[in-house]
Amino acid sequence: MSKIVETIQWKSADELYWRPQEISVHLTHLVHFSRLKICFKSLSAADLNFLKNIYTKSSKFLEFDAYFKKFISSEKLETLWGPPKIQMDGNCWFFKCSNRKNVLRIKCHFGELNFINFFVFDKSDIPIGTVLLS
Length: 134
What we know:
Pfam families: FTH. It comes from Caenorhabditis briggsae. InterPro entries: DUF38/FTH_CAE_spp (IPR002900). This is DUF38 domain-containing protein. By secondary structure, the chain is an alpha/beta fold. The protein has one domain. Helices cover 16% and strands 43% of the residues. Strands 1, 2, 3, 4, 5, 6, 7 and 8 form an eight-stranded mixed sheet that branches. The protein is globular, with a radius of gyration of 15 Å. The N and C termini lie far apart (34 Å).
């Protein structure tokens, strides 16, 4: 995998779908994709915070779906981002994007197989009463 992520094809690709096998690559090799659907062995709160910081500044990012078996963290997401907005299909946080027209929603569901979704959408479509975080 270390050789693949250095190729021009990898660096030029816009979308990545890597399921059901787990991908073994550092997150820095994934942030140029606009859409991703992948599996990991594990993710941490620091990993998710890293992605949040990248995606709120990205002009081309659209969506990232990740499934992972283990959530490794010494910090809880609530400690990093504050209390989530509770929804039927998971806990959500909403962040301002640097372009001011968009919002990044991060939705987490923790269970036997953990799931996280990062999704950018128009600010006018945020649910009523939602607090936008920086």
